Amino acid sequence: MRFRKFALLATTAAVLVGAGSVRAEDVEVLHYYTSGGESRAVNVLKEDLEKIGHTWVDSAIAGGGGANAMTVLKTRVISGNPPKAVQMRGPAIQDWASQDALVPLDAVSGDWDNLLPPAIAEVLKYDGHYYGVVNWVHRVNWMYINKPMLDEVGGTVPTTWDEFFAVADKMKAAGHTAIAHGGTPYHDAVYFEGIVQSMGVDFYRKAILEGDAEALNSPTMVQVFDILRKSTEYFDDATQGRPWNLAAAMVIEGQAGFLFMGDWAKGEFSAAGKVPGVDYICAVRPGNEGIFTFIADGFVFFKQNGGEATEGQLELASLIASPDFQLRGAQFKGAIPALNTVPVDSFDDCSKKAAADLQSTAASGGLVPSQNQGTTEAVLGAIRDVVTNFINSDQDSASAAADLAAAVQAAK
């Protein structure tokens, strides 16, 4: 019943937006969906918008996990020329909303409170109103394994770090690169995050999401850096500056055994025609069972000349939240629908597990935002700086933990 209700809301958006005639308009969209799987997903939305008469003006900014796009956004806002729609996540939504820069989405938010897990709805709101619309949900704490390589060395899917390093040793002994890694601060932090989570969701929440100094500079965090240091022994020599999608290509093409990346990487596997369970395996990272680290990718809409929402903005918001786009876009992106009423029967086994885990962890307390979603830009930058410095130096784990605590406190 809810599915039909929401579908009706989405398809009648033009009526809900206003009584006047719908006017075609240019809708500039600033985003950082630039890899193969990402581009396929965003093209679905572009086509849907143009079918109802508007023109999608594409402003795609690659690199930095969105950091480059946010830099461009700030420049545009300062100059008084913000894009109409911007891909955004995390505390940035609340920050811009608090500055009265964003359009509230009351006209189209309908039953979102009942259709979204509370942990996800929370990151889209400010002062009780929705300012962001979520297009899909990503699970960050995935691990991808080249199945033929795993079979070659007689390995099994590791569930602990000890098991992981045992399999990695076998791959290394067979002449393979065990870990495909992109040597950027973004990928460094994604890898690091999964190790922190393996110490328990409560520790992750306290250390990363709350930035607790005692947790950050603790024996447990020293252990995290010890595991990170050992992991670097299985990187190849050409990691420096490698984008994450090229690291994914290494596993896709059989050049490496493991990739630690969110499920947007699965879009790359799908685009290459690879089949889960046959060509690759997707599994939660060592020690991460019962934890779902999410990124709720979404869009916000900037006020134009200080005015109300345009018809194009609200219609784009409705399209993003429609069951049809949630289904098709998520499949191309490698994600899962955010709405709990969208069936995932047509999704692959990786996504079906993610969808089931989303619901179970929402009930158990294991559903937590990624550092990209749940920390400020300043804190995230501090984490990335410390982790990247550690990976690219011979720093010891204890001093790295101390540096992390100091850097996060300074950034808060």
From TrEMBL:
Is Lipid metabolism among the key words of this record? no
Q: Name one GO cellular component term.
A: periplasmic space
Record-linked InterPro entries: Bact_solute-bd_prot1, SBP
Q: Does the keyword Ion transport apply?
A: no
Which family, according to the similarity comment? Answer: Belongs to the bacterial solute-binding protein 1 family.
What is the recorded function of this protein according to its Swiss-Prot or TrEMBL entry? Part of a binding-protein-dependent transport system for a sugar.
Q: What is this protein called?
A: Probable sugar-binding periplasmic protein
In which organism is this protein found? Devosia enhydra
